[in-house]
Amino acid sequence: MPSIEAGSPFLQKACQLQGELTAWRRDFHRHPELGFEEERTAAIVADHLESLGLEVKRGVGKTGVVGLLRGKEPGPCIGIRADMDALPIQDQKEIAYRSTIPGKAHVCGHDAHTSILMGTAQFLSQQAKIARGSVKFIFQPAEEGLGGAEVMIQDGVLQDPPVDAIIGLHVNTTIPTGRITLVKGVGCAAADEILIRIIGKGGHAAQPHQAVDSVSVTAEVLSALQHIVSRQMDPLESAVITIGKIQGGAAGNIIAPDVNMIGTVRTLNPLVREQMPERIEQVIKGVTTALGADYEFTYNKGYPSIVNDGVMVDRMKHTATRVLGSDRYEMVKPTMGGEDFSYFTQQVPGVFFRLGVRNEAKQCTYPGHHPMFNLDEAALPIGVALFSQFVHDYLNQEEDLS
């Protein structure tokens, strides 16, 4: 972590919020709520924003909260987004603030995102001087697969006043505390879902010739699907086809009449994404026809790719240099993970960056969605400082991006 003494004034002031940020984050960690169930979290957020004197709207996109801070003069509006939902995973950490709700846990860091944005609202309303324009603090529900960003947009979150640009972050335990990573252009994959049912003919395991073994057909389909990426695609393009769940069969001596599979398809190039449904179905149809089986296939489009605006990325590099130093950010390749911040970047220029929270001494090394996931809370004020500096410079039109 960068020295506080050597840090920017914004970072020094943000570090004064360490106690509050940690308390908020641990409280949310103890009381996780799944997508569109974030009633307690939303109430705490809304009450906090109202205590700061902000204009607050509750129930935006079902359980979302929006706070608006107006500057002294008219000007552009910048949005800052944090997601609030937890995951349906059992928390396995032995810590004082572990989840108190069985089967639910903040093991992706959204509790930190929410706390950082609460701290940013406090910082910008009390410490920074917003000369012009406005800041919209967007506390979003249901990022984990339910598309809460899209629901908030449909509910008018980018209007009244219109949002001109937006920023967001995600904590990451592969990046050391005190550093961030950025991607220019496409920042993450489009994340789609596939549902496949292989339909065979049940029978006795000792008489396979009188049946159509859906399990063995499924094995052939699984193998053939990987040829799409390895042999049908341009090697310079990126794609992932993963089958994560298979269900079929009742006993070892029974040939299963059918098998159900659920998987995900990840792509970066929109043209490759458009080709995937047809390519996948061709493979399934070819294998099942050859082996005497049938199939059902559904392709559900999920989150699109985040597209980081070039100018906004340059602004964030400038911000990182001011707050952390010129050697504290890194330009990296896109990730094949999905993120519904992408719905915002479809509407307005935006930038989404990764905030380092890795600290081996504190055992903050497990990846997101792991039941042992935890993060270095020393990164919380860094997130506040980065958000606040970016917004301050953007609204006060400090154009020097050197």
From TrEMBL:
Protein's name according to its UniProt entry: Amidohydrolase
UniProt key word Magnesium: no
Higher taxonomy: Bacteria, Bacillati, Bacillota, Bacilli, Bacillales
GO BP annotations, alphabetical order: diaminopimelate biosynthetic process
Residue sites binding Mn(2+) per the record: 108, 110, 144, 170, 369
Organism name: Desmospora activa DSM 45169
One Pfam family, short name: M20_dimer
Record flagged with keyword Cell inner membrane: no
Cited InterPro entries: Amidohydrolase (IPR017439), Bact_exopeptidase_dim_dom (IPR036264), Peptidase_M20 (IPR002933), Peptidase_M20_dimer (IPR011650)
